[in-house]
Amino acid sequence: MTHTDIRPAPQSRSAAISRFSSGALLGWGGAVILAIVLAQAAHNTQVSPTNLVTGAGRIVDIVQRAVPPDWSQLPAEWGPTRETIDIALIGTALGAIMACPLALLSARTIVPNPIIRTLARSAVALLRAVPDLVWALIFVTAVGLGPFPGVLSLILHTAGMLGRLGAEMIEDMDVMPMEAMELAGANRLQIFVHGIVPTLMPSMFGLILYRLDENLRCSLVLGFVGAGGLGFQLFTAISLFQYRTASLLLLMILIIVLLVETSSSYIRKKIL
Amino acid sequence: MSETTNRSLLLHGVTKSYETATGAPKTVLDGIDLRVEPGELVVLLGANGSGKSTTLKIASGMIPPSTGDVRIGQTDITRMRGETRRQSRMKLGMVFQDARLIRRRSVLSNVLCGTLGRHQNIATMLGFLPRSERPLAMSCLDRVGLGALAGQRASTLSGGQAQRVSVARALAQKPSVILADEPVASLDPESAEEVMTLLATVARNERLAVLCVLHQIDLARRHATRLVGLKKGHILFDLPPSAVNDAMIATLYTRDAA
Ligand SMILES: Nc1ncnc2c1ncn2[C@@H]1O[C@H](COP(=O)(O)OP(=O)(O)OP(=O)(O)O)[C@@H](O)[C@H]1O
Ligand SMILES: [Mg+2]
């Protein structure tokens, strides 16, 4: 570490003092503005407790028609269950692979060239900005109903999310050990596989598992627009007023989500 | 004297000016002549900002000097590029204030990483460490007294242990020269003593030229074969410890009225 001058520069010091004294004022001002913004949001979205009370009766009615779950449907739902899990698995895996070059190319510490970096970042931003549901609608139109459009939309969304988080992780990484390797005569590829990969692998793997968990939930919603799996079954059941089938499906979804969530968080804890 | 001519570190007429925001370049080193022979531990002393780190960075080839040159033995390594530069870097082992280990890897793997420069093949580029270097890496660890920790993760080491591992990693490079910038700055007195003893032993027994920046005068006096005082980019003295008196040290650290 070189610390040649630890005195703060005069102007940054006075700036720090004025920031300190105006802190409380800013805090209260911010709170008032936030309250106003929230009040208009509640008004605009027609948040109304009375409507909720009158609607409660209908909710009770639906729940009554949904119990008990129609267990006889259970064997028929194994196929869609596997499909949902497989959509999440393959979408996450291929998305993660696609995210790797994007993350590397958009990390400041790896790519000094601002043009390449901006291109990569824009691609990542676009992938992320378009909701996976919209990707799914586009792909259902393009390649037809079924699990494949679901997989495609998960790949793109996952690549966008992991591309960004991965780039942040790469930029936050301590590069000093890599610099030490370079000074010891290692080449770029060696620095990558022996320095960067072992350093990032566990947290990258953790991110991917977390994404798998999210993607499972996403793939359920994607089914609603025709992209296969349990979501599609649920959508069909509700449309046909088969509430007891729907409740069975919801129960299965709950169990799968909980299973994947607990196992992925367990593995994440183990490797980090 | 073939050993001396082939493995000594030589800085000749080195100057360094940094570009500054105001436009006027700032001269940080102003004509440095310095020679470190194999077997010597030369300690560089000087106040903050006197140019010690800059000297080491130039010696290691991390940054180029404005004028002058750096030699290892007969080879001028100052303005090398590409493959020849990579080759010359292997001759220089570096020890930093923070050990700069790959924290998630084992102690032994970290030491083996020091040998990668000699093994530029498919296997090492696919992530395998050179097996043939294991005995050497183990012996380097034994020399720093940490053979027993070979399998432990680097993140679990104490500061002093990590620093000794980084010395072992430098040794695994089979260098001619070791450069150490404040290697004991974040260590407690006992660990600092250990690391300096280690560097002195390495210099003596392995016939390495060791150049080390220190802020601890007593440590420097006890372990160095020579003390070099740097002030505002000039060498104030270059003498064996016994010839350096308190007045010289005092002059080194007093700030002249500007
Ligand atoms: N990249 C740089 N650009 C501009 N000036 C620099 C740069 N690096 C160092 N300097 C300046 O060069 C001078 C010498 O710095 P150097 O790091 O060599 O000092 P040092 O003797 O190692 O100090 P310390 O004991 O604090 O580590 C300082 O005034 C510093 O501000
Ligand atoms: Mg320094």
Kindly describe this structure.
The complex is a heterodimer of chains A (272) and B (258). Chain A has two domains: 12-65; 76-271, Orthogonal Bundle (MetI-like fold), CATH 1.10.3720.10. Chain A is 80% helix and 0% strand. The longest helix of chain A is centred in the last third of the chain and has 36 residues, at 188-223. Chain A is built from eleven helices and no strands. The model of chain A is unreliable at 1-6 (pLDDT under 50). By secondary structure, chain B is α/β, with parallel strands linked by helices. Bound molecules: adenosine-5'-triphosphate and magnesium ion. Adenosine-5'-triphosphate sits between chains B (18, 28, 46, 48-54) and A (2-4).
Largest interface: A-B, 26 and 39 residues
Discrete helix count of chain A? 11
What's the CATH first level of chain B? Alpha Beta
Shape, per Cα inertia axes of chain B: globular
Shape of chain A: globular
Mean pLDDT over the full residue set of chain A: 85
User: The CATH topology of the largest domain in chain A is what?
Assistant: MetI-like fold
Assembly context of the chains: heterodimer
Could you give a quick summary of the protein structure above?
The complex is a heterodimer of chains A (272) and B (258). With 272 residues, chain A is mainly α. Chain A is 80% helix and 0% strand.
